[in-house]
Design goal:
This protein is an alpha/beta fold. The chain has helices spanning 35-45, 76-81, 113-121, 129-134, 138-149, 152-197, 205-217, 219-234, 240-254, 259-288, 293-313, 318-384, 425-428, 431-448, 465-478, 491-494, 521-533, 539-549, and strands at residues 2-10, 13-19, 24-28, 62-69, 89-96, 102-106, 109-111, 124-127, 391-403, 406-415, 423-424, 453-457, 484-487, 499-508, 511-518. Among the domains are: 1-123 and 496-519, P-loop containing nucleotide triphosphate hydrolases (Rossmann fold), CATH 3.40.50.300; 180-336, no CATH class; 520-550, no CATH class. Helix content is 57%, strand content 18%. The chain has a six-stranded antiparallel beta sheet. The protein starts with a strand and ends with a helix.
């Protein structure tokens, strides 16, 4: 419930602070006194967008703060989801700076307007002329039926299923679109893949081929060098091996004369063995090396293929070519297996559709069962509100499309007169009739939903006498289970309030101020008498006012 409302520097209000209680609260005042200003201020703290025109003093900021008792609203999940501190007495604040910048706070934590608006929807239901038009919308009409049918859990489960179904639908559509495009590229991608496979790509292959090419391309020079090296090592007269042989003999003779000579001998022996081995290696390499034009051509061809592929794909090495090859392999494989994947996804979608269909059928059955009761309650209540011939023709037809509310197509038709033809509410119901129907529906919803604070803004416009009296009784009855506000011009309604506030204007200096005060018992009598007979209050008007309050 709304426990307190504080407004500073807004429209015609310098400063206003009002405490409210549970039950039925009536707000009255002359036309132009500022009742709409109060609603405007309240709407700002509930998340409505603001502009600089909201400021009374353009050099100071506007602050609107509201305190709400929210214990019974089950809002702890909302606070947790949005990382907000939960308090049973929650304070919502809105600030509008002279610069036009706006800030919002919930329990002193800054929040976005969307979060504030979402919370506001759970705190106060402001019934205005605009909301009356919601009565003509199918979604609102279904909500009423769902409240009576207690479909909340079933509808939530259906909506979860629908969300997953739509996700699967999108995945299937993406696969089909991908297949359509992939088929166009499949042949080309397959060609590129085969081309890369034929190159026998592996890490280091290019370096190996380049080294082999260098060797095969320089055979004559290599043979010449090998021959020269072998000559230096193996010449009978001055070859290194022959000279080392003589040196080995000398060292061998020195060896018996001490360990240092023995060590020297060992080193020379090793040197001789190594030189002799190298001479053999030169010989073997010479014998194993020969010109091979065919091998040279083959290596050159493989290298050229690698160079051409790198140029074609705009890369600089074999590793990048391998990456492209693997990516192409995935694309080609995916294209070739898409049909199976699509069939699998279609099967999955069909199963989800079957589940959705069952849930929507369950919704349809539960809704259909309560329509007679809704019709009875509506017609019975409207009869007491001066519409004895009002009747409804409400029916549900199962459609093919899965909507957020199910597959039901709702027909919610109305006739105000006996024997009259049925038509859509927006076409056949007057503004006054729509207001009475909306009040009736709200009164019904109170029985089935834990509604937030309800604020009716002149819902009784266009009615008088006994009808207004009955509307007041309905709102009074609603207030037994929730906080109800009524902004009204009718004394019959105002007299039903547990609390009565008057909005009025005062002139101070060069300016005009909107004020609001709670009326005492005697002040209520005077206010009601003025509403009955105008400013010239008669004794009969006073007597009538007292009678209304009793």
């Amino acid at each position: 419930m709304l426990a307190n409302l504080s407004i500073k520097n807004y429209a015609l209000i310098d400063k206003l602070n009002v405490a409210f209680e549970e039950g039925f609260t009536c707000i009255t005042g002359e036309t132009g006194a500022g009742k709409s200003i109060l609603l405007g201020g309240l709407s700002l703290v509930l998340g409505k967008r603001a502009d600089l025109s909201s400021l009374k003093n353009k050099d100071s900021k506007c602050i609107i703060e509201a305190e709400f008792q929210i214990k019974k609203y089950n809002l702890k999940p909302f606070f947790k989801e949005n990382d907000l501190d939960y308090e049973d007495l929650t304070i919502v604040r809105r600030e509008i700076q002279p610069s036009g910048k706006s800030r919002a706070f919930i329990n002193d934590s800054p929040v976005t307007l969307s979060i504030l608006s979402e919370l506001g929807d759970n705190l106060i239901d402001v019934h205005s002329q605009h909301q009356t038009l919601q009565l003509t919308e199918t979604d609102f009409q279904l909500r009423v039926i769902d409240a009576l049918a207690d479909t909340n859990d079933l509808l939530n489960e259906y909506q979860k299923q629908l969300k997953h179904y739509r996700k699967t639908q999108k995945e299937l559509e993406s696969l089909i679109d991908y297949q359509r495009e992939a088929i166009k590229e499949h042949d080309y991608n397959s060609f590129l893949l085969e081309e890369l496979k034929s190159a026998t790509l592996k890490e280091g292959v290019q370096e190996e081929l380049e080294a082999t090419f260098e060797e095969l391309n320089n055979v004559e020079n290599i043979l010449e060098l090998l021959s020269g090296g072998h000559q230096l090592l193996s010449d009978d007269q001055v070859g290194v091996v022959n000279l080392l042989t003589e040196l080995k003999q000398i060292a061998n003779k020195l060896s018996p004369y001490g360990s240092k000579y023995s060590d020297l001998n060992s080193r020379i022996q090793s040197l001789f063995i190594e030189a002799d081995d190298i001479a053999d290696e030169f010989q073997n390499l010479t014998e194993g090396t020969e010109a091979n034009p065919e091998a040279l051509e083959e290596v050159n061809s493989k290298l050229q293929q690698l160079y051409d592929l790198q140029k074609k794909h705009g890369v600089s090495d074999v590793v990048e070519l391998m990456k492209i090859r693997d990516e192409l392999a995935v694309k080609v494989d995916k294209t070739e297996n898409l049909e199976n994947e699509i069939k699998g996804k279609e099967k999955e979608l069909a199963a989800e559709k079957e589940t959705l269909t069952r849930s929507s059928n369950d919704l349809h059955l539960k809704r259909t069962k309560v329509i007679p009761e809704l019709k009875r309650q509506l017609e019975s209540s409207l009869s007491l509100l001066g519409m004895p011939s009002a009747s409804f023709n409400i029916s549900l037809k199962k459609g093919e499309e899965f909507k957020n509310t199910g597959t039901d197509d709702l027909s919610f038709l109305f006739s105000a007169n006996k024997g009259g033809s049925y038509g859509e509410l927006k076409k056949v119901a007057s503004g006054g009739e729509l207001s009475r129907i909306m009040l009736t529906i709200k009164a019904i919803l109170v029985k089935y939903e834990n509604l937030p604070t309800m604020m009716f803004d002149e819902i009784d416009t266009g009615v008088s006498g006994e009808i207004s009296n009955r509307m007041g009784e309905i709102m009074k009855e609603m207030s037994k289970s929730m906080q109800v506000f009524s902004i009204t011009h009718l004394p019959q309604v105002a007299s039903k309030g547990d609390q009565h506030y008057k909005v009025y204007k005062t002139e101070e200096g060069d300016g005009t101020q909107t004020q609001m005060k709670r009326l005492s018992s005697e002040e209520r009598v005077v206010e009601l008498a003025a509403m009955l007979g105008g400013n010239n209050i008669s004794d009969s008007a006073m007597a009538h006012a007292r009678q209304l309050l009793n």
